[in-house]
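Slide 14.
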Amino acid sequence: MKTNNDKSGLKRISAVFLFTCISALMWLIIKLSNNYVVTVPFNIKIIEQPANQTLPENDYSIKATIETTGYKLLNYYLRPERLRGVAVSLKNTKYKKAEDDKYSFATVTIEELVANLMEINANEVSVEEEDFVFTMYRLASKRVKVVPKTNISFDSQFNFYGEPSVTPDSITINGAYNTIKDIYFVNTNTFTKRNVRSNLSQSVGLQLDDDVFSETKEVEINIEVEKFTESEVTIPINTLNISNIYLFPNEVKIRYIVALKDYSNISNMSFNVEIDSTDFRNRDRLPLKLVVSPSNTKVTSISPNEVYYIMTK
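Slide 15: predicted structure.
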């Protein structure tokens, strides 16, 4: 008897559940069949701009009021956000220049495109604004210098021989005039190398902003490397043709670093140190100035850097 009662109870519950589901489905169908007036956002993408123009941004949106059924609204909300929009072709749309780099076209164009997207009549779509304003820049190009960026460490006694160079040393960049007019150079990506003791050559990319373009994608960084040594010379101090002055000491020792291949080309004639004679009569000692040194050397010290002096009549 209890088993029969249980089966009867389950049948009643099942019947109630089925009735509820059918009722909910009928209610949903009725609701989705109704017309609604709602205001929803639509993404606007501008396409087919003139060949000599560029769009600095292309992620516009606009709110449109539409009258449509619940079915079509549900279809709209079930779409990925990137598909909730329309593309406006400037090739097929009449637009005008507003001011500077601002352009506009009548929003009736958007109303028609939204109507097609939603599969409704154009008179069932309305946009509050009369004109849609967007920014479009004139394309330009210019030649700019390429600057190599390096992060190099060397083995002991090795170093750069001259500055790193790039091939080509300049490139043509393209972009909106307002974007590139103040660009005067482009950096390479950083070329990193450790424990270097010989010449290097490596292709590297360029650091270009997203809105700047170039047909040149890579350049070649060239780095000449040499072994260096430290040496010194002792030279007389130039007294600037002041005949009645005596210096103590009258010579100076210069220590410098030079590439081994240039070592034999450097002599004491390659340097010139002179006294700083500015207001020298009111000083006990005179500072020294290095006025000539070879470009392929790096002076590390001058000793002494000032000297005593005596003036005679």
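Speaker note: The chain has four helices and 25 strands.
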